[in-house]
Specification:
302 residues; mainly beta; four-stranded antiparallel beta sheet; 14 strands; disordered N terminus
Length: 302
């Protein structure tokens, strides 16, 4: 009697643990000479990423070009190409399309055939990132939008030459991605320290080891009482917390002998006084309290 085994899910790029390892039993060691039997085929549009498989469904991204979207002969050439990006959900058994989510997405990137990121499936949610930075969280059952962000518009991300190409990582209640550019990193830092509702703004500044340089402010995190002046932001709504910028190539010149060739290496830096962050976050009124080594004071933060 023949038995049928169900394959493990492959819910994200490189599998359940993102290491490219199959852990199920009974895998083929070699393919039969006549090849594998095709269970089904389904037509999809262009794209570079593989599918994710979870809960009896197949999730993938593709892109349907617009009627006048003629890709240039040189794939490195950047031109504006209209089209529609899609997230598709197919039945694992026969390839039937169960739902699709689509949105207009003009491309201005090299190798502009379609998306490069495998969707990430986590429970009843599907997370998909398009080439131009459209990040959507969809209901796995019906494809309805739970929320969406745009890495360029919402986080001032910097679009890579081939577009966004990463499969986002889900870690507990966090979705991890890299918008690119300095502000996204600084915003993530500010929200980790001061809370999820914070925003940041950048102001041009001068620092001797970075060029260009900026001062970084975080939106005030104190509760404002009408009729009283905020002791932290002085009612401006913003608090300066750190300096940042691109590392000046001359800095790398001093360590070029260790492999930091300024013609090949770039760097992004930011720094702050940890005491100032502690004072702002915990309302410490006097810097000297942090250095008095008074156990009664320190135990408040244990």
């Amino acid at each position: 009697a023949a038995s049928i085994g169900r394959a493990d899910d492959w819910p994200q790029w490189l599998g359940p643990k993102r290491d490219g390892i199959w852990r199920e039993e009974g895998l083929l060691r070699t393919f039969p000479e006549e090849g594998l039997k095709v269970r089904w085929r389904a037509p999809v549009a262009a794209g570079y990423a593989g599918p994710a498989v979870a809960g009896g469904r197949v999730y993938l991204m593709d892109r349907v070009p617009g009627p006048d979207a003629n890709r240039p002969a040189d794939p490195f050439q950047r031109v504006t190409l209209p089209g529609v990006e899609r997230v598709l959900c197919l039945d694992e058994r026969d390839g039937t399309v169960l739902w699709k989510h689509e949105y207009d997405c003009d491309y201005g990137i090299s190798y502009a055939a379609g998306p490069r990121a495998t969707p990430t499936v986590d429970g009843d949610r599907v997370y998909a990132l398009g080439r131009e930075g459209e990040l959507v969280c969809l209901n796995a059952a019906d494809g309805k939008v739970v929320w969406s962000k745009h890495l360029q518009k919402d986080f001032e991300g910097t679009l890579p030459g081939w577009g966004y190409s990463e499969a986002v990582l889900v870690d507990g209640d966090k979705v991890i991605c890299t918008p690119g550019g300095g502000k996204g990193t600084l915003l993530a830092f500010a929200r980790a320290i001061f809370g999820p509702d914070r925003e940041v703004r950048l102001r041009p500044h001068f620092f001797p080891f970075t060029e260009p340089s900026v001062e970084v402010d975080v939106s005030c995190f104190m509760e404002h009482t009408p009729g009283t002046r905020c002791r932290v932001c002085k009612d401006t709504g913003w608090v300066e917390i750190l300096g940042s910028g691109m590392v000046d190539p001359n800095v790398f010149g001093y360590v070029a002998e260790y492999g930091y060739d300024p013609d090949r290496v770039q760097g992004f830096a930011f720094g702050m006084g940890i005491e100032r962050i502690a004072m702002l976050k915990h309302g410490v009124p006097d810097l000297r309290l942090l250095y008095d080594n008074d156990v009664r004071f320190l135990e408040q933060f244990g």
